[in-house]
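Methods — Computational structure assignment.
A single polypeptide chain was analysed. Its primary sequence is given first, followed by the predicted tertiary structure written as structure tokens.
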Amino acid sequence: MAEAKSPRKKTSAAKPSPKAPARPAAKAAPAKKAAPAKAAPVKKAAPAKAAPAKAAPAKPSLSRADIEAKKEKKKNAALRVAKKASGPRTSPAKAAPAKKAAAPAKAAPAKKKTGPKAEAAPRPKPRKRPELSATTPDAAALRRDGARELAKLIAAAGLDKKAERIEILDIGEKVDYADFLVLMSGRSDRQVRAVADGVTESLKEQGHRPTSVEGMQQGQWVLVDYTDVIVHVFVDEARRYYDLEGLWMDATRVPFEAPAADGAAPASP
């Protein structure tokens, strides 16, 4: 194939080209916003140095007498102020003593069975009998013999006052507070008191005085304590209720006889 011939460029002078239309002016680039300038940090003002205080004028020195006089004046002034504040003196009223709280009433124990009208039955107080002399070998036997004779004297005195059902119980080997019990009865509280009074008066005439007597006010059960011998004087109802004979059923009964002058028959053991 024949190669295409490239057109030859005309070497003639170039004709002036018609005026090209004026290009529009390039748009101005938008101005960049200036960054806000950072405020420079405010420098802290250095604290102003206080001006040195002027030295106070020196006080005139006082003598010891002047100082004491000032102290005395202050003291007197304080006393006057205190007196005015306190006012006239009045004697303080004594506070009334607080009343003691009433003790709670104790509940009375329930009775298992109905008994006599006595409010409280007397009981022998715990005590120690006088010590025996160590120099007497048969001191215990001698004392028991003396207690036995005393019990018989008490029984005889009870017979004089018409006491009933008199018994002497030997309890020396069973307890340590007495050797003998003397039991007797009266038909009423008046007779019980009369029997107890008669026994104590009769024994006083013979040189024997009781250490204590209890129950005379009620007259239901009178207890007369002669240390080694204890006397119980009951009304019949109280004697059946407390039943000391049954309590000391295994104690030995001591027989006794009334004095011959009375003409009384021997009491049953």
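Note: The domain at 141-257 is CATH 3.30.460.10 (Beta Polymerase; domain 2).
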